[in-house]
Design a protein that fits this description.
Low-confidence stretches: 1-6, 10-32
CATH superfamily: YVTN repeat-like/Quinoprotein amine dehydrogenase
CATH topology: Methylamine Dehydrogenase, Chain H
Number of domains: 1
Number of helices: 0
Largest sheet: 5 strands, antiparallel
Number of strands: 29
Distance between the termini: 13 Å
Shape: globular
Amino acid sequence: MALWFSRNAFRTPAASRSFRPTVELLEDRVVPTLSGTPLSVSSSSQTDTNPATAMASNGSNVSMGIVVWTQSNSNGDTDIMARTGSPPSTLGSTFTVANTPANEDNADVAMDQNGDFVVVWVSTQNNNSDILYAFYRANQTIPFQSGAVAATSLQEVDPQVAMNKQGAFVVTYTVTNEPSFNNNNQTVTSQVVRAQLFDNLGNQNQTIRVATSNTVDQFDPRISMSLNGRFAISYMQSSPGQPQTNQKLFVSIYTINSSFTSVNKNGNFKILSPSSSQPIIDQDVAVDTKGNTLVVFNQQTQSSPQTQVIKGRRVNSSNSEGSTFTVQSSSFDLGSAVRVVMNATDKDFAVTFQFTTGGTPHAFVQEFNSNGTAQSPAQQINSVNGTGVATSDSAISIDANNNYFVGYETTSNSSDIDAEFGTLA
């Protein structure tokens, strides 16, 4: 995966290979690729949650990063904050992205090789949720362009954003109550997934109907984009109003044209159709510069006692699907979000997930080669502070130099945001 990807945290409401990595802390025999030293992004007296990160490297191979998050305020609503950084340990000043009387939450962020970046979030007021955006030039804290991605009387939620190297970007989101007529001419509502294309000046162009059937629900989109504008949107499908019944996991793959005015759809692929007793809990997607796509997902495999496994499946650049393979099968939290980033050129990847020990949740990152074989044991994020500090809701992004940026919540005293840099071996 390359410089233009971003990954945000998510709060959780086919033959597999024999490889079974275990969750264990790194010991002296392993050379760590994650710093292990947390950078304090936000330690305000307010509650800070829901981090998202983005990374980029410029023409001089200098890496840049940004983290955005939600912060409660004294007025009783929430705002979107941001802070830039660069490896191994530099952080810029905090600045405010959005602080209107509405509740602003669930932000995501993406960055291009020039350091330009875009932040998207949900704005909720008067029981209506819209998707807004702010597009910034490099090193600026005042938007170059801002406005609405989707602002109707419907409920638009779950924004995700990805950007190519020139700064064109795509925002995908869920509409939770899309009305339409069925075959009996009756009005029905369903959840649908849409996306919006913007050019590198922040101007809105094509609206993309990613998954808009009125006979099923489609929701929880994730997005990743490659150097040349090839991007993938993964999403869930289920029976209407029943998110764990008749589940299916899909990924749709697109390419942006050279003028950033429209997209071409390359294909839609069913990644998994699990049984009702083995539902998918969470999923994510990554695309490399060659157009290879990787979808990972956390799947419950047994209900009593509850067990689960993280699996992956690829769609290669020629649009053929590979076999499902196991990424992680050791003990980790059933409700754990799973996030993935991929090397720009050789399909190596890193996954973050959550594992509770002694009643305390911990975020982990683990690196894998292109075959899905672990490069090292899972490494605990914020390991310098030991097992007593709770870490959760990790977000991860990567640049073309294979430097990755992990943002996460810490809850030892109150909810704060920390971050660490690492390098994908």
